[in-house]
User: Fold Esterase-like activity of phytase family protein from Amphibiibacter pelophylacis.
Amino acid sequence: MSLGTAYPQISRRTLLGLALASATTALAGCALHRPDSTASGTPERPALPSGWRLLGSSSARPGLVVDGTPVGGLSGLDYNPITGLWWALSDDRSQRAPARLYTFDLALNPHGVAAPQFRQMIALRQPDGRLYPGPSGWQGRARSGPIPDPEGLRLLPGTDLLVWTSEGDIDRGEPPALTLTRRDGRAVDELPLPAELVTMAQGVGPRNNQTLEGLALVPGTRQLWLGMEGALKQDGDLRRFTRYDLDGRRAIAQRAYALSEGPHGFGRAFIGVSELLAWGPHHLLVLERAFSITRGFEVRLVLADTRTGSDTLGQLRLDPRQIQPMRSTVLVDFGQITGAALPRIDNLEGMAWGPTLPTGERTLVLIADDNFLALQQTQCVALVLPAGDPA
Assistant:
């Protein structure tokens, strides 16, 4: 997501420039905004769950160019355990270069995280082989296909396929999309989405640049969870997470999600769900990302139980008084773990399971969308946690 849409009167570049340049102290350590547990009367919870630890962080070299394209805007992330390669999806809407993917190496070791080493750019193509058009196609010229806003990415194990989401362009009548693509970048199918996620009318439907941001693959299945970054216009503040069956090409369930609250709240900053990741068959890791001029980026990791909450599939409008959201628990407030190994928090938007360590522990890696701004970073953050799934 481009954060300028949260403050439409300010351009994205001006907005982030103000936050990153004039609020350096806020970004240099979100720990400056740690909750005051004494004032609230609530005991401060541990910075990380039991058995978890921060492995470290690193960033790509500024101004990096791969295969003639600028590396940036990385919003989707996944890992191939067979090849050891990481895959990242850029949210460049064919503005600076064609809509595209990257592969890269990311070395994780007991001492930290090496800088990502990018290998290849893969251009996304339509089923007929054409590149996706950019926004200039709106300027009176005939369009040669949908203009994508790529966000979520998952590799489908045992196949040569991946699936990715586009937020579309609601202001221009372009709906969100879910696309099945070969790993060489060529699309093979655009999958139908439930009506409530794509219907656009007065006071109804998705908000511009706040649509399909999260994408999770349920382990051992051909099913996905699709996460809306923002609430539909008619849904108050409830986000919708939709369970989707790839073989049936249809949604099979949907849950409402309420953003985390309490003494560790984000205050009045814009908040969105920037990624989902399945943890076992019944839980989702939800990445909540907040941004404000005064506080910069703040990021929180939440565990949601998909067995709970009302099924909202097919409901055009949600009444918060009649809808029970999924049960969820805040696991990590990244502002509480800043320090030498994580000096700052950037715009974390992608998340994937990484390799299992020799100790049997799991690795969890997050990547930041730098918005193609020199003051931001393509940041990689790695956590280590015990093996096993939530109960």
